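Entry 14. Two folds queued back to back today. First construct below, sequence then structure tokens.
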Amino acid sequence: KTYPRTGSMFGFVTYDQVHLVCEKIMLVQRDFGNRKDRKNARLKYTVDTLGVEVYKEKVEELWGSKFEAPRPFEIKDNFDHFGWITDETGKHHFTCFIENGRVEDTPELPQKTGLKKIAEYFQSRPNSQGTFRLTGNQHVLISTVSDEELPKVKELMSEYKLDNTNFSGLRLSSAACVAFPTCGLAMAESERYLPVLITKLEEDLEEY
């Protein structure tokens, strides 16, 4: 049986500990997740099987610390904000639109080659901190770009159209699971058809 489930609160952690806690959460899932039944393999089912408090205790045991009491917070949206931003340390980050999270080369968008060229550029610089990050919405951040690297990265992004965010809001916020042909649980098309559906909807929306 599968079912939707909202998240459970473990508590508060400081900024510098977030990546460590996330790692420990995944390690508990690795050790206790149900790998024998794909329908029951997701983390939410492991939390329900162990219980929230037990799962939390196992994370704390691996982490070697305790969650603080929850603090007030507000989630305003889960939309990726595309384009350039500069963080408090002066590093630059660009969120690229990757339709359905599928990095590939097409005649219109040679994104796979572009990301490879940027990776090679970062690797050619001994002290580069440049890296790629994945967002929760399946897009890619070209991240931690220094002032010195910025012109070259922008040049490569333009050449391979990685800086193209000129899409409708509908397309930018769309996402689909893989479904056919690779998912054994799929009963219909999803990822391969969604871009076609979005185009049809965009054409209809233009009329209104």
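Second construct, same run, same settings:
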Amino acid sequence: MRVRQYVYFALKSDGVSAAEMTARLGIEPDEVAIRGSRRAEPMIRPASHSWKVVCRQPYMTVDEQIDHVLDRLLPAA
């Protein structure tokens, strides 16, 4: 059985939009959700705004995936 693992860093907020998070951080996210928006999958409307940097690259160890995400976040530090 093949293991599918991934690593992500997420910010969530009821008041700060994903666009504002992007502007404040100066980093483009891989995924966003807009509070109350309609989506095809899943059918549930997000309860909050979210902003994510994700690493789903196969054949990497978890440590390598974490390093990849942290490297993406480093410019905002």
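Quick look at the second one. Residues 7-76 form one domain. The chain has a mean pLDDT of 87.
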